[in-house]
């Protein structure tokens, strides 16, 4: 039997950095409010000439180099994004394929918003285990600075731009975990969940087929992300615990055997509340939200890449990723290094 193994990681975050103080220059807000409510100090903003695919391709190049592969080795590209280059056609994954010159790859987007990377990694695992793809690029890439309403202080302060990527290879189960290159982690299991009945809690109302934009229309705030912050907060705290507990129980692991949680970076307070409820040390829930804010589907692979680069991931660890977001969707992947 084949198994799915992460053999390389990469990330790209645009250099332009926007602090809370800069936001306070044009919005009625403050570093104190934003940091105390969310843990965010900065976010990075894509340049005008950058699209989501540019960020994704930059992260993917780094992941390929890390895995020792070339673009021609890849047979499937999955891009998790909810801020695509184009409105539906073509997919961002096809643009990434062209930017990389990955001409042997099939390419498609995965739309599960902030859970997108978790969903895409499980999709990659299914392809890898069945043997229908051998080397897969899984990318999370977002430019939320073009999805938020910059006059709405309750949402725009929360988000940032960036991309992360991993290479997933289909390897024989007996191959074990022998190569010294890192991060090299087996994707052992995933849980994926959706709650479409709460679709309106986090929504970009206009611009799709439900409310198409016609010449001369001005939908104002409805063109942008709108959120019931309280509802999403409460959902997220519960979702994190549910996913972790289900993955541990199903795989015969205890909380003490869980070395790291790599959560979607939406709000540091959400992580603290979830950790408290679970009785899990919050220090083992990786957080870089202070620097990047919420980069939606990109946040987990950016975090993974940072942890690997910092030497925090060591052989023999159990790691759970947890994503949650619009849909509502949530889920997680169990990795073993
Ligand atoms: N600066 C200053 N004041 C603000 C700001 C701001 N940026 N934003 C809102 N306020 C004010 C509000 O107007 C309100 O004032 P009022 O009491 O006079 O009406 C007050 O602060 C409190 O606002 P609340 O919305 O009640 O604040 P809350 O404690 O709920 O925190 C927050 C808001 C941080 C957004 C929180 O609800 C949250 O983190 N929710 C989860 C959001 C999230 O994670 N979303 C992303 C999910 S991932 C995805 O799929 C994209």
TrEMBL record:
Keywords: Acyltransferase, Cytoplasm, Fatty acid biosynthesis, Fatty acid metabolism, Lipid biosynthesis, Lipid metabolism, Multifunctional enzyme, Transferase. It is found in: Cytoplasm. The active site is at residues 114, 264, 294. It catalyses: malonyl-[ACP] + acetyl-CoA + H(+) = 3-oxobutanoyl-[ACP] + CO2 + CoA. GO terms for molecular function: 3-oxoacyl-[acyl-carrier-protein] synthase activity; beta-ketoacyl-acyl-carrier-protein synthase III activity. InterPro entries: ACP_syn_III_C (IPR013747), ACP_syn_III_N (IPR013751), FabH (IPR004655), Thiolase-like (IPR016039). One of its GO terms (cellular component) is cytoplasm. Signal peptide: none annotated. HAMAP family: FabH (MF_01815). Belongs to the thiolase-like superfamily. FabH family. The last Arg residue of the ACP-binding site is essential for the weak association between ACP/AcpP and FabH. This is Beta-ketoacyl-[acyl-carrier-protein] synthase III.
